[in-house]
Amino acid sequence: MAEQAIKIDGVTKRYGEFVAVDDVNLEINKGEFFSLLGPSGCGKTTTLRMLAGFEVPTEGRILLEGEPVEKVPPHKRNVNMVFQSYALFEHLDVEGNVAFGLKRKKTPKAEIQTRVADALELVDLSSRAKSRAGELSGGQRQRVALARALVNRPQVLLLDEPLGALDLKLRRQMQIELKQIQREVGITFVYVTHDQEEALSMSDRIAVMSDGRVVQCGAPEEIYEHPSEEFVAGFIGISNLLQGKAEGQGRVRVGGNSLPVPDLPSDFRTGDPVQIAVRPEKVAVDEIGNDNEKIQPGMFTVDGEIESMVYLGVGNQLTLKLASGGRLVALEQATYRVQSDDQWQVGQQVRVGWHPEHCMVLS
Amino acid sequence: MKSGSAFDKPRFLRVFTGLVYVFLFVPILVVIVFSFNSQKSLQVMDGISLRWYEDFFNDSTLRESLFISIEIALITMVVATVVGTALAIGLVRSRSRMAKGSNLLMLVPLVTPEIVAGISALLIFSQLGIGLSFWTIVLAHITFSISYVTIVVRGRLATIGIEIEDAARDLGASRLESVRLVLVPALWPAVVAAGLLVFALSFDDFVLSFFTTGEQSQPLPVRIWSMIRFGVSPTINAIGTLMMVVSISAVALAVMIPRFFGRRESGVKVLTGAEG
Amino acid sequence: MNAHRFWNWFLAPGTLWILVLFAAPLLLIFALSFGHVDDFGRGVYGFKLGNYDDVFNSTYLPVLLRSVGYALATMLICLAIGYPVAYYIARFGGRWRYVLLAALVIPFFVNYLVRTYAWVALLADEGLVNNAIVDLGLSDAPVQMINTPWAVIGGLVYGYIIFMILPLYGSIERMDQSVVEAGKDLYGSPLQTFIHVTIPATQAGILAGCVLVFLPSVGDFVSAQLLGGPDTYMVGNLIQDQFFAASNWPFGAALTMIMMLFLSVWMVLYLRRAAKGEAEVL
User: Fold this and answer.
1) ipTM associated with this complex
2) Whole-prediction pTM value?
């Protein structure tokens, strides 16, 4: 059992009538890269600000390595934060920014010097130590913010959408660097983001939040492959949502079809409404009668018609109208059908299939 | 005159604007030019001399008034800047009911005619049994200056998010330290500009001083008032020119200060609250 | 809550200061306006309406109305002069914009008394303007300019026009130029566009400028004293007389209250918008 860095125990935050965070329970392990993921207004930033000490929970407790801290003011907590806007101190140079926290703690001068130098080296900014914050590029400012927080060797580092202000290319680069730095320093990261790809690629575990509640918490693969409810399935990637009724023996009736759903929990009784989801990239599309090429043995298949097609670069997104009624979205990798004469035509009759185990049951 | 089409034609507007600037500057140029006149005449320039400046500096009461005006303006500047900056910070950061009340209260002096402010000050001092003196002038000047400082500083504060204070607190600074170490340095250009603006306003103020000045310690504008009522004298031109130099230096500094701090924005912007 | 108490400490000194030295004395003026003068010539608080009767008698009422009339004229002239100037600087000022603005502000920082006094020197019967008029043969004798209503109003315009131009500049500068382009499409003529698009879009600046010019103009006594005569006295002169020469403070207080009554609609209108951050403040 890994050591616990943070325990959030029944935390609720209300502003008057408005419930920003609603009975959140989370345990975050030491050294973990933990993400809070959700759309804006879901309570993820409020949760982070309660960890930092800027907000006091209305109810519940926050334990930092076993110590209750929910009432401790931010300057007395051994956690540090990287802000969305970086919040650099413009009147100080890079060194001054990074040394700020150590000076507050009355660290000896010599130690401040070495630690600041180390931190700047860690983020590859040693050459800009004397620059003013205003002279730095967006990426460099981001690194200063990171060094300024890490230099204090916090028990936990909180990051509030730290890459939100960067352009796409720089974002990707910083994602890799952040992850590397986290491995190097071994500090627990709590990372707030609304970008599902970012959360999936960087995190050890993710908590998906919606309307102030944690709707699912788990490893990235788990969240992606087994979303617990419609919101998660919809927020993380696109999903085909199908409404059906349980038929017993691991089958669900959707429209005129009986679908095999091996994951269907046994507590669903015949006639119970069931919601299932299929990821578009798991849906195979092929010409009718051309079996065994993309439609593989063991797949569940239905027939349909191509209703529309969008070229996405990496592939095609097909919207299919099923013969039994209803629609599905399929994502086809560009490795197929590269020749233009081999393209799908809108209106073409096709066979659609997927492996039953890719059917996800949502609660 | 003000036809719509004229507003699309910079040429008309340029001429019109030029005339307005002439209107604004002619009286001032007259004051400056005739302050160097060797004769008493205000119609004919006779030759250049500094005799009216000599008159001014040889008059000990006028000299004293100049220093009184400067002292009042300096004290007003320091106190109003501190109190007004604190008020601006409180207004932007606090969400209490008190902040809403203060916000409205702070604006009232700006829209009240100065004569009313003068009478207010006169009445409260007489009610409290405080004799009119140097300090009653200072108190009255600080009152209206606080609002000016608050407006200027608040304008700058609006462009600074709360995140830098949060960051400072996150890094181990208490609330008060975060204000002192991070927020005030960030506000500094506006604070200095506001202070200099208030210096100039206080130095030039006549109406408030008029109502709160006793027998002693008369600031320069109050002296000018009695001089003008005795008749036109070229010494007034010299005083006016000197005062102009003092206030415009203060304002020029206020405009330039933000640049000294390496900010890209212009000081005019800080002072007028205009957005670029 | 903790944060509340902390920030209230910042509010307290300034709020208290303005409360004690500004707001509370306004109530004193109100109270004193019902008082009378005792045998020693001192103001005594009381509950009489006599002072208000006096305000509305035939001697003083015209002065009050004249003040409001002068102030309105000042306001309209400032608007008519200020709008084109603000428009020119904001739209066509280019990189000279801040220089032009600074040049506007400079005269404002020349002492108001000295500026008004300069006008006395210019407009007097023997003044520079009259000399020029006679020399150019435009008139045989000097034209009476000083001691006229227009001299007083001119002095007020000169004194307060900056309060009109700065807010106007702010709102014109902020106005989205594409709205004007769209207006030209919709209304066609530039005049129509100006009336239906530009003026409404800069309404906040117009309101602020008008209020900021009107309010101090009503209470002004310097311009009327120096550029006018007994026929052009304004309420400010009357009030000032009561507190100095005549030494009838209660009557002066009543005059002040009536003046404030005239102004209160404007003040409230402006304060409500300014408090919400909608109006240009200065």
Assistant:
1) 0.88
2) 0.83
